[in-house]
Fold:
Amino acid sequence: MLKLENLSLHHGNTHLLEDLSLHVQSGDFVAVIGENGCGKSTLLSCIAGLHKHYRGTLLFNGVHLHQWHIKQLAKFRAYVNQHSQLQFAFLTEEVLQLGRANQLESQQQSSAVICEIAEMLSISHLFGRDIRTLSGGERQRVFIAKALIQLVPQQNEKITNYKDKLLLLDEPTSALDFRFQKAMMDLVHSFCQQGLAVICVSHDINLVLPYAKEVMLLANGRCLASGSVGQVITSENLRQCFGITPRLITQTGAAPYITH
Structure:
């Protein structure tokens, strides 16, 4: 559904991304990891369609990304960036309603979708609150909910059908406490089991590895390693990327745990 081939992005003489290739299928969870400034967020924003002057191939559902009409793309791709904020006095439910603005459905149908996702992310009690008064973690859960609401099919389709849809998450758990970190990752993973593809940028490697089908390790805008967790998460790869040699605690049938 998503195909990147030799993707490069330059800003003047600065090479932000260089020759990146990635194939993502429905139901995949891809974790993008690497040190600060290596290009993780830039890659995600490029896939989101925020950069027009990239080189290489970027196909989404078989169509070049720049050929998608923005309203049509919004039904299949949702993006939660690292610093999602609103400067106006929207209520929580009004922010969530923005996720359904592109759907042809009744207010009743829209409300049903919003209430269902809000319940899943435990934010129903925030209805009636000014988004600007919420804590960082509460606000983060609202914007993740909005992205999921955006991708829920219209009423004449099955709500569990997320095939060919893509969710882009940039540090989605950075403001969440331990309880909501795991709850949010479990929820997103459940959507993957319904066909949703997810590309997740995170510094919390140990949190995302158990959910990842594939990992891309970036260094200086280039792909240092890409593949399964076992292929990418090695002491040598991590040493090359982060400049330290970590200790890997291996567990039978589970992702390795990285520590110093």
The CA atoms of residues 33 and 203 lie 6 Å apart. The chain has a mean pLDDT of 93. Residues 2-259 form a domain with the Rossmann fold fold (CATH 3.40.50.300). The radius of gyration is 18 Å.
